Amino acid sequence: MKFQVLSKYIDLILHFSYIYIIKLRRCLKMKNIKPLADRVLIKIKEAESKTTSGLYIPENAKEKTNIGTVIAIGSNKEDITVKVGDTVLYEKYAGAAVRIEDKEHLILKAKEIIAIIEE
After folding, report:
1. Other C-beta atoms within 10 Å of 3: how many?
2. Residue 16's Cα: distance from chain center in Å?
C-alpha cells in the first residue's frame, strides 16, 4: 500500500515536471536578445539545398555553414570590429547556438569572427 501511494506521488511529480518543461519551452521562444560585452548575435546562413548541378541535398546531409549575418552586437563596442548587417565568417565550433523564431542563431565572442565577407 505504501508503494502505491508513493508511486502516485511520483507520477504527480513527474506530471508537474512535464507541465513545467512545456511552459519553459514556450518561454524560450525568444525574440529580443541583446548580447553582452564583446559578444555578437549572428543569424546562421542556411546551407544550400541544391547543388550547382541541380541535385537536391536532403536535410540530414547538409553541412552546417560557418557564415552568417550580424543581428546585434554587445555593449563593449571598442572590441567589436563588425557592425549590424555585416556578413561574417566565424570559427566552425564557436559560440552558443540559440533558436529565435525557429531560425538558427549563434552568440559568440567578437574574436571568434574570422573575416567580414563583402559581396
Report:
1. 7
2. 28
> What CATH superfamily classification does 39-117 receive?
GroES chaperonin (2.30.33.40)
Whole-prediction pTM value? 0.68
Distance of CA 64 to the CA centre of its chain: 12
End-to-end C-alpha distance for the chain, whole angstroms: 72
pLDDT per residue as tens digits for the range 28-87:
556 678 899 899 999 998 877 777 888 887 777 777 789 999 999 998 888 789 999 999
Q: Structural domain boundaries of the chain? A: 1-30, 39-117
> What is the pairing mode between strands 113-117 and 87-90?
antiparallel
**Cβ atoms of 71 and 44 closer than 8 Å:** no
